[in-house]
Design a protein that fits this description.
Helices cover 43% and strands 10% of the residues. The strands form two sheets. A two-stranded antiparallel sheet has the order 1-2. Strands 3-4 form a two-stranded parallel sheet. The relative contact order is 0.17. The chain contains eight helices and four strands; from the N terminus they run H-H-E-E-H-E-H-E-H-H-H-H. A hairpin with a 2-residue loop joins strand 1 and strand 2. By secondary structure, it is mainly alpha-helical.
């Protein structure tokens, strides 16, 4: 989540939000579906990617000649900001490393929601850069509660893929369209069946309809 500041930067590790990012609009309501195939294969890719980042950290140390060569060849390196822009005001990402906090501030991020139960981003360090933190602890692979989704969506209007979809649904986009948008912007987005069910429930709550 960010403000409307100038996001131009010469830092190659910082990706500004896409200029073609859509606005929040209301669409015809389809039903969001769980894709077991996508969940399975993207899980394999995520495991391989994590192993690659560990290898790359040793092969391409920061500020080394090898790192500059890798960047010139557009090889993804683990020290880049782990985030993907969904709209021009909303991004989804992984944990925030302490050394990345100033970079987030430079691209205009002013609020962060951390949905991990095992860890939490450094609220004090974020605050020193003018970034607010909301912690909604949720066990890994488990869906956020409806209360957490409502609270998080409301807070953002002023875990996670699920919360990003909740923000979009709360803003008027239907759940299926929100999920497709997030998955288009971030290939790692593969919520499990329980999380999809919770998103349907959340959409019903927002739309003022009883859960099916």
């Amino acid at each position: 989540m960010k403000d409307n500041t100038d996001l131009s930067t010469s830092d190659p590790s910082i990706a500004p939000p896409p200029t073609d990012a859509p606005s929040t609009v209301a669409l015809k309501r389809p039903k969001v579906e769980f894709s077991g195939t996508r969940w399975f294969f993207s899980g394999i890719v995520r495991i391989l990617y994590r192993r690659w980042t560990r290898i790359a950290a040793h092969l391409f140390p920061e500020e080394s000649r090898a790192e500059h060569v890798a960047r010139s060849l557009h090889i993804p390196l683990p020290d880049q900001l782990n985030m993907s822009w969904v709209t021009d005001q909303l991004a989804v990402g992984g944990r925030i490393r302490p050394e990345d906090i100033s970079a987030l501030a430079r691209i205009g991020v002013n609020s962060v929601v951390d949905t991990r139960s095992e860890y939490c981003d450094d609220a004090k360090a974020l605050g020193e850069e003018g970034i607010e933190l909301l912690h909604l602890p949720t066990p890994d692979t488990r869906p956020l509660s409806i209360e957490q989704m409502l609270g998080g969506a409301k807070w953002v209007q002023r875990r996670s893929v699920l919360l990003a979809c909740a923000v979009l649904v709360y803003g008027g986009i239907h759940a299926q369209d929100a999920m497709q948008l997030v998955q288009q912007r971030r290939w790692q987005a593969s919520p499990n069946h329980g999380q999809i069910v919770r998103l349907r429930e959340f959409e019903n709550v927002v739309m003022g309809q009883p859960s099916a």
